[in-house]
Every structure is written in structure tokens, then in C-alpha cells.
Amino acid sequence: QVQLVESGGGLVQPGGSLRLSCAASGFTLDYYDIGWFRQAPGKQRGLVASTTAAGTTHYADSVKGRFTISRDNAKNTVDLQMNSLKPEDTAVYYCTVAGYWGQGTQVTVSS
Question: What values do phi and psi take at 89, rounded to 5?
Fold first, then answer.
């Protein structure tokens, strides 16, 4: 059974860091492009970062220099390291692979 499970969300103060992880089961991430998306209340879901199977990464302008996407093929996970967090980063974060989506993890940036 194909499943993606995100973890690592939570409440953090502005300027803080969080590391999200997306664990896959039922297939191997090595061969797929992977994306992290986010959706804030009242807004459309949008791409945050992506990595191709070949390792090419792409970031939304709003997170460039602050977020880093990486995959751990041994663990079959893809992580999103988020630094210098801002209140506008508050959203539910989702990973997606091959048309599958996880359930999302809430990130709240607030003092």
C-alpha cells in the first residue's frame, strides 16, 4: 500500500527552525520527483520546494535561502529543513510523490 506520512511540524517562534520529514512506504523514492507544498488558511496550495530523481532542486522565491529539500534514500524519506521561519510560513505542509499526497503537517510560526 502506497503511503506518505509527514512529520515534524509544530509551533515555532519567528526566526526559528523546523525540520519536516516525509516517509514513504509502498514504493521507493529514489526514482521519483518529490515536492513539498503548503496551504495556508484561505489560500491555494502552492509549491514550496521540489527535487527531481536526478537531484535538481527548485524553491519558491519566498523560501529561497531559508529552506532546503533533501532526500535520504536509505531511509526512504525526503526532508524539508526550514530556517529563519516567518509568520507567513504558517501553513499545512504536504509532500507529494507520483500523484500521492500525505495527510499534511501543521507549521505555525508565531510569537
Answer: -85, -5
* 8 Å CB contact between 12 and 93: no
> What is the residue type of 84?
S
Reading the block at residue 74, the C-alpha cell is 536509505
Cβ(35)–Cβ(99) below 8 Å: no
**Residue-wise pLDDT tens digits, 50-109:** 999 999 999 999 999 999 999 998 999 999 999 999 999 999 999 999 999 999 999 999
Q: What are phi and psi of 37, to 5 degrees?
A: -120, 165
- Residue 25 pLDDT more than 90? yes
**C-beta of residue 46 within 8 angstroms of C-beta of residue 35:** no
